[in-house]
């Protein structure tokens, strides 16, 4: 590792992951987003059904969240987020979903397509799918039949699970052991920090931990693991959940999972005692910080969330201290180290840049 910025791998999907990335990009350019691929609704669902394509909506949103701040990058990011109106065959489709799907067909690889678009958007980080094949999310839901409220009913598909009026008792993936994206596994293993959430618990966060190879990479990594809690319970899959109930569900579905820090907004917690104990059960400390957007208390403010991340990273930096190399007292470079010489880091992680400026290789939710 080189430089002071940590290598961060963030897991999630939809608006929750986009919020996390909008904050993390302020801290490090050694940033990788790993995105769920279970979406079966909206534009992504239609392309998945019609073409057998990987659902690109959440991937597109992550790319837009990492797009460069210059006019070129923002123009392209805005175009990719544009959604067609009208009542014809294109109605509801996002331009970015169509372009990413076409690029993946032409390149024969969704990863190649994502890297090409990242270059176009000047993305400050890399975006990768959890798997290069689509997955299905299946939930056992109680309370759907008033006559047999305790009897679980199978609900299939991310869109249906996210909006179910019942209570989710458990989730699983179909297939049960999808192949994880190799580059995403590498990013998890190389990270200083692994970030989970915010976002839909059952359809954006848990799927990463239910893919066997990714579960092993996340739980076995040397990185610190931080979870960012949602600001409000979501209608449907987590309606009525307390903040600590999210952690209890995580522990139930992923036995043996250990976290280091749980970030929550004090206004969303009430009594912090039960949440602190639930965090401790996962090996984590609770970090309370104001992170909500004053204009919409259901959304995270990128600047405030970035400040919370900075505080957590500074207090729990897993990287060994690296001494500053000596320099000549007159400020000149050493004779054997000329300006512009190749990077001394044998891994090349801190030096290799591909896909355009800021695209480093590699070190709430709504579905689209």
From TrEMBL:
Q: Where in the cell is it found?
A: Cytoplasm
MF (Gene Ontology): LPPG:FO 2-phospho-L-lactate transferase activity
Recorded hits in Gene3D superfamilies, A to Z, give:
CofD-like domains
Naming one, the record's GO cellular component terms include: cytoplasm
Gene Ontology annotations of biological process type = regulation of cell shape
Q: Which CDD domains match?
A: YvcK_like
Keyword vocabulary terms for this entry: Cytoplasm
What domain of life is recorded for the organism?
A: Bacteria
- What does the protein in this record do? Required for morphogenesis under gluconeogenic growth conditions.
Q: Which NCBIfam families match?
A: CofD_related (TIGR01826)
What protein does this entry describe?
Putative gluconeogenesis factor
